[in-house]
Amino acid sequence: MLVSVTTLAIISFDRMLGVVRPFHQHLKKRQSIAIIVVIWIASALFAIPFALYRRYTVRVWEDMTERICMEVDSKMVVWWWVNVALLNWLPLTVMVISYSTIFVSFKRNTIKKNNREHPAMTHLKRRVVRMMFVVVMVFSVCWLPYQILTVSKGAFIDDSDHFHSERSKR
């Protein structure tokens, strides 16, 4: 998840530069490889606490056996908030700003008609941007429920890993 969202943010920023500044020098192969390596290393470092502070639990119910892996330390809730904020919502903000800038740029170029690019190239860029925007939106919509449940699980599950019941609240 961390690698995916960060990569999508970098791609959207690069697309924005490609559309807004078409004659600006783009990333070279070495720079791209360096960015990919940094993304993977940073994501691995941010994921280490999730690997260290988890326990495997088996619950046997009347009709099924449930196997879950969950955080041991209550401080992990704070770590989830950090990850959700810095490694999900910040890149998502970068993506929204990048694609908004691209859409504004396309509108402005359509109005000006001074675009030095061939119309077919502009059409191709629009299709790529639209596709990437859809990828970002689908990614966000798919991960949002999981993030909300993970971060807010303390409101629903007590320290003994059982759901809060209405009777215990009264």
From TrEMBL:
What transmembrane ranges does the database entry give? 33-53, 80-106, 127-146
Question: Pfam families in the record, alphabetically?
Answer: 7tm_1
In what residue span(s) does the G-protein coupled receptors family 1 profile domain sit? 1-170
Where is this protein found?
Membrane
Tell me the membrane topology, using the record's own terms: Multi-pass membrane protein
What is any one of the record's Gene Ontology cellular component terms? membrane
Supply one GO molecular-function term.
G protein-coupled receptor activity
Record's keyword terms, sorted = G-protein coupled receptor, Membrane, Receptor, Transducer, Transmembrane, Transmembrane helix
Q: Which family does it belong to?
A: Belongs to the G-protein coupled receptor 1 family.
Xref: PANTHER family: ECDYSTEROIDS_DOPAMINE RECEPTOR-RELATED (PTHR24238:SF47), G-PROTEIN COUPLED RECEPTOR (PTHR24238)
Return the protein name: G-protein coupled receptors family 1 profile domain-containing protein
- What is the protein's species of origin? Petrolisthes cinctipes (Flat porcelain crab)
